[in-house]
Amino acid sequence: MKCLYIIALMAMFWVTEVLPLPITGMIPVILYPLMGIMSTNETCLCYMNDTTMMFLGSLVIAVVIENSGLHMRMALLIIRIIGCSHRRLTLGLFFVTMFISMWISNTAATAMMIPIMETVLIELESVSFHLFRNLDYKTRKKIIFQIYLSQQGLGNMFVQKEGVTEEEGREIKRPTHSTMVYYLVAAYASTLGGTGTIVGSGTNLTLKGFLEKRFPNSPGINFASWMLYSVPPMLLMGLLTWLWLQVMYMGLFRPESKDARAIDIGQQGERIAAGVIEKRYKELGPISWHEFSVGVLFIFVVLLWFFRSPGFMPGWAAYVTNLSVKDSTAAVCVTILFFIIPSKLDFLYAFSKDPRKRPTKASLGLITWKMINEKMHWSLIFVLGGGFAISAGSTSSGLSEMLGHYLIGLQKINVVAIMLIVCFFAENVTELTANVAVANIILPVLAEMCVAIKIHPLYLMLPATLCCSFSFHLPVGTPPNAIASAAGHIKTKDFMIAGIGPSIITLVVTVIAFSTWGKYVFNLSDFSEWAT
């Protein structure tokens, strides 16, 4: 009961944010030893393990990619290929953002993509004024009337609404429907993309670490199996969410609607938008040694993660050593290489006969410690560690066994129905509380529930973990929503309405995908001995 009290206390603090999330995560270091649950040494070991090191490695990779500018080149290149109508642009930006968010944090992906989207919107807005000036009087009068009715306009980013604020007479911006789609694309695509790989979100790594702590004899979750399961549902959810936004705000299937007329930029508008993208891409210049090196190392670490234990063949680790090699080894290896490999090739001229070509100072690495120290989210280590401590304390104190005894009555309920209820609960709670905190609270309960009703622990834990990331209704629900809301001046009411579709889509797709495709990928049909 002592452990249950500590977990309840941490859950209350995480939900209400009475203390900062990482500070709440440190509570077990104080209370576990004093209440006789675990020693200080055992508790502190929960905060630094394979999952934590992998998490740190993924954060370093995100910082390095952002610092090199590789993400910008990749995004602009894909948009050039896809095309520049509003529909194609939003579709391209959606999938580009999802792909980027698979490898770096959702927050970083949103922050990277919004400036690109804003540049496109600003240029489209200037195109609309240029086209408008060249129209005859009759057509111009007709368009003015349409703009008045729709409160939008060809490429307009915002409409101005007079209102009384703290500064009297100030104009309040509100986004047009077309503008709102671009900002929602940045937020929603980042959230969905974070589910695509095990390093894409803190909640994914929380599950990995918790599973290894609670069920040490389990085969665990590897990079390959996670991607094999999660990428197809991620792509489907992304496409359906994009369609939802098109129907709601861009008049898809309603060609005569105000929204559909407002986004019709015409062939000239598409050419101008394509020119903007082309100009931005050319401004980047040829690919630099810095970008090339980061790209090669990024591909290298992904291959190391994927082929460490792919399942369909022996992994590379089996040929190197008989000891257990985890994904953190690859992450730390590439992290060190980022510091070793120089960002410029100046050193090649160190012995040049021409003294002007000789470098006067040492070349910096692909990343510096100062940059890492400034941009790393160190606090999340303690949030993750707090969750792992909950798992270890539950097992050590006997709380897990007690919960299993009380939950055994759930065997009478259909497991798919239980999964639906659990996913629905996780999606709604995560709208109000940090995603990782929600995962830390519900995963211990779900683990014991699975043991009690004798189903594979991943049957409930993995879909619930994914749903902990699906926050679409409130700006405060997740950092990508907050960034999009602030940059796009999107009201909370509009966010709540826009999030209805993605919430339903993700809930339904997750339950169907995991009860079908997930059972095949993770072999969930049997209740393994390691779960007892």
What is the number of E strands? 2
- Distance from N terminus to C terminus (CA atoms, Å) equals 22 Å
Report the uncertain regions: 130-156, 160-171
Summarize model confidence as the mean pLDDT: 80
Order of helices and strands: HHHHHHHHHEEHHHHHHHHHHHHHHHHH
**What percentage of the residues does DSSP assign to strands (E)?**
under 5%
Shape: globular
Q: Strand arrangement, largest sheet?
A: 1-2
Helices and strands: which structural class? mainly alpha
Q: How can the largest sheet be summarized? A: 2 strands, antiparallel
Tally of helical segments: 26
Radius of gyration using CA atoms only: 26 Å
Keywords: Membrane, Signal, Transmembrane, Transmembrane helix
GO molecular function: citrate transmembrane transporter activity; succinate transmembrane transporter activity
Pfam families: Na_sulph_symp
Organism: Acromyrmex heyeri
Overview of the molecule:
The structure is a single chain. With 532 residues, the protein is mainly alpha-helical. It folds into 2 domains: 1-47 and 378-393; 48-158 and 172-310 and 321-366 and 398-522, no CATH class. Helices cover 68% and strands 2% of the residues. The chain has 26 helices and 2 strands. A two-stranded antiparallel ribbon has the order 1-2. Helix 1 runs antiparallel to helix 19. The longest helix is centred in the first third of the chain and has 28 residues, at 106-133. The chain is globular.
